[in-house]
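Hey, quick one: can you model this chain's 3D structure?
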Amino acid sequence: MQNSDMASWKVPWKGIIAALGCGIFSLIMVFSKVANPREILQELENYPTSYFLLALSCVVLSWGIDALRIRALTRATGHHIEWWKLTVALAAANFLTLVTPFAGGGGALIIYVLYRRGVSAPRASAVVTAGGMAGQLSLAALSLIVFSLLDQVPPRVGKFLIYVRIAFVLYMGVLIALLYLASRSTWVRKWLQKKKIFDQEEDQSFAVKTGQWVNEFQATYKQIFSEKGRYFARSLAAAFAYYVVYYLASFTLLTGFGVSEGILRYGVSVLLGVAPVFSPIPGGAGTAELVAYLVLEQTLPKHALGTFIVLWRTVVFYIPIIIGGSIFTLLVFRWAAAKRNLSSESVILSEENDHNR
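Sure thing. Here's the predicted structure for all 357 residues.
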């Protein structure tokens, strides 16, 4: 990254339109196939507001917990960034995550935020990728624990849970292998040499820069796993707590309907939360609704099921888009203003130099 690129972020209107469009389409399908809109509106009027507000509070609180995940890793590199600033950045990153396929847009923003705070691009990339690994490992671990404790699930869902558990075990194995490879000092360079990517003389400068980038990236991983891995362990703990609290939002909404109880209710919440993560559709629109229909069809009346889907989508999707999108837009304007000020100072300095001549 260069200074001229520091304010190049733009509001991803296409992603926003796609995400909102998919979400609205899903709700239309709920209205047309699951329950009558009038019945849903009547159910919404009777739904306790306290459960809705408590669920929304869980989502907002989870952003603050997630900031601890990144903060632990940045400390490993010797950088100290205020917790509240990371919380604000993660709220904006959550917005990008919701409007990009496979929930992959937020990481790039965090790299950029860390870069602006003085963390080099390779170090910031290492921090974010390690944080992402910690998050995915925690998600897989939480899902395995919860799904293993479930004893009463709908027959159509229960027969697939064993495959879900196996998939998460394999997924954790892949993540651990990637963490090991990322911390190795020679495998990337050897791979590049084996592929003879830099045989041409004109590529040598690029090869040197790439080698330096890889060396710094892997050196950061060694810092992250130094001191018996305590920094990464803290990040894992924070990520685990993040998912526990985040899925309490769905749990709280289901509590308002009196759905199941205890671990089964939380298991349904985790299942709803996991489904959109692996969806190529922005926000996982349609995927979570389908899972909710399959899991809750025999537990809730159709009008209550439709109401839950509307409330759930509002709490975890629409309101976070509004909050995170507003923060992201303010950050973009702030960065653009900083770039203009920097450009103005450069012009003035140039004129002064010419005048002195």
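One thing worth noting: Confidence is low (pLDDT under 50) at residues 1-7, 347-357.
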